[in-house]
Amino acid sequence: MKNRIYIKDLKNNIGKEVVIAGWVDVRRDQGKMVFFDMRDMTGKAQCVVLPSHAEAIEQAKEIRLEWVLKMTGKVNKRPEKNIKAGVLNGELELEVLSIEVLSQAAPLPFDMSLEGYNLDITTELNNRALVLRQPKVQAIFKVQETVIDSFREFMKKNMFFEFQAPSIAPAVAEGGSEVFQVNYFNKKAYLTQSPQLYKQIVMSAFERVFSVNKVFRAEPSSTTRHLTEIVSLDAEMGFIDAWTDVRDMAEETVRYILKQVQEKNSEHLKLLNATLPVMIDKTPTLSLRDIQQKIFEKFGRDVRGEKDTNPEDERQICEIVKEETGSDFVFIYGYPTRKKPFYVYPSQEEPEYNEGMDLLCRGVEWLSGGRRINDYNQLMKHVEIWKMDPNKIKMFLEAFKYGVPPEGGFALGAERITMQILELKNIREASMFPRDMNRIDDRLNDEGY
Ligand code: AMO
Predict the structure, then answer these.
(1) What's the pLDDT score for residue 305?
(2) What is the mean pLDDT of residues 344-362?
(3) Which residues contact 443 (CB under 8 A, 6 or more apart)?
(4) What's the pLDDT score for residue 444?
(5) For a substitution probing ligand 1, which of 416, 421, 424, 431 has the most ligand atoms within 8 Å of its CB?
(6) 411 lines ligand 1 (CB under 6 A)
(7) Between vectors from CA 18 to CA 26 and to CA 101, what angle results, nearest 5°?
(8) Which of 38, 242, 348, 439 lies in the 20 to 30 Å Cα band around 127?
């Protein structure tokens, strides 16, 4: 838009006539004057329409919240007593000279103001398009933007190469039934649950690789921390000495993300009343058996011998580690080999346990990863034991036929991290357009779509 200046730049134009454009965020009538807080993507400013500007004041009487306006006005300094220190444009006010209405808005279905906004998640999602204008909702996605950006930044700083993973695959990599089948020209294909096999292939050529891409999980249950479509932040690295190299890279990645969020989103954290989790110098690492023993000792709940953790174990171990070390984070390793996907590396000393790991924080899993099998013959053995069809993963297996260094990698879900950093109650708040068992934008009706 020609001549328009952004609201954040009003302060550089005191005494001048300017054009701004945006939405009506707040409207107040005071005697014969009308006040608007106008909002554009850079901030808000108070605008006053005086009765002396006859045409503008007549228009102002009709104008309601969320109307889109272009305004010409003069930027005035506020009288000393009206200055709001520490607020963007708190020292100035736009005296409106003329108004052009660019678009009208229907009456709002609920209170959108900063103080009054308070919706349950269902109402929020049912009104997503409108709600995305609310600063607290925007703050969540600004934090998410930093999470994704800083993952990418950290990877590049550490010589990882970014590749684009496919979303349609001929086979199920992670195992289990949580996969969407696609009718692909009358043949069976799947939406990828993870770029796992592809990142390993690309690693075998490029050494250090990462991807930021959508993955799909046909989660059959409706929980507050699972979605069916997520943004997966994936890394894979060759030439490791041990699985702990992968753990350390994962830890430093998360540390970098937290630091960037602290630096770039302090204003958003404040708005959402969020405190970042504590990552101490060396995040504690415990085996599955260690944590089961600790849970037994502390809470008397005997989960020793269980093959995986359940949500209560995850809450309790985070509580124990926090109390013992001050860390909000804990790595867990040493899961039973047969309980994890075929590509995970079994421990040399105790092959019934593997070198896969999870990173937990605030009672929830943030990240999974570990060392992978890089020996072709061992991989083929696992393919057989796991009853995989080698023809369906031929391309993956081929890479390992031709020499692959010791390697490993990890993945984090962007929505899960955002939810956990901000301590949101429901992961749906951390996805702009969440997909779950019951919703694709609208709630699915009984017949489905
Ligand atoms: P995993 O299946 O544990 O590992 O997924 C990695 C991370 O992705 C996130 N996540 C989810 N977030 C929301 N809804 C879901 N349904 C969901 N499922 C997973 C979590 C989780 O920690 N291939 C391995 C990774 C690897 O070994 O490199 C994998 O996919 O943050």
Answers:
(1) 93
(2) 97
(3) 126
(4) 83
(5) 416
(6) yes
(7) 50
(8) 38
C-alpha dihedral over 234, 238, 243, 249, to 10 degrees?
Answer: -50
Mean pLDDT computed over 386-400? 94
The whole-angstrom separation of Cα 442 and Cα 440 is 5
Nearest to 399 by CA among 188, 161, 196, 163: 196
Task: Specify the residue for token string 């009003």.
Answer: 10
Q: How confident is the model at residue 86 (pLDDT cuts 50, 70, 90)?
A: confident
Kindly report, residue by residue over 245-258, the tens digit of the pLDDT.
Answer: 999 999 999 999 99
Beta sheet of 435-436, edge-to-edge order: 435-436, 439-440, 442-443
Per CATH, is 7-103 categorized as 2.40.50.140? yes
Q: With a threshold of 0.85, does the pTM exceed it?
A: yes
Percent of the chain with pLDDT over 90: 92
Q: How confident is the model at residue 133 (pLDDT cuts 50, 70, 90)?
A: very high
d(CA 56, ligand 1 centre) in Å: 55
Which helix (H) or strand (E) covers residue 291, if one does? Answer: helix 288-299
Angle formed by the axes of helices 376-385 and 394-401, nearest 10° = 150
Sequence spans of domains, the chain: 7-103, 126-443
DSSP 8-state secondary structure symbol assigned to residue 179: -
| Token pair belonging to 246 | 């992968």
Do the first three CATH levels of 7-103 and 126-443 match, i.e. the same topology? no
Give yes or no for a contact between 40 and 86, defined as CB atoms under 8 angstroms apart: no
Residue 445, pLDDT above cutoff 70: no
155, 190, 194: residue to mutate for ligand 1 pocket, most atoms within 8 A of CB? 194
The single residue listed with the structure tokens 């260094």 is: 405
- Among 3.40.640.10, 1.20.1740.10, 3.30.930.10, 3.40.50.300, what is the CATH number of 126-443? 3.30.930.10
Q: What is the pLDDT of residues 278-301, one digit of tens each?
A: 999 999 999 999 999 999 999 999
441: how many CB neighbours lie within 10 A of its CB? Answer: 13
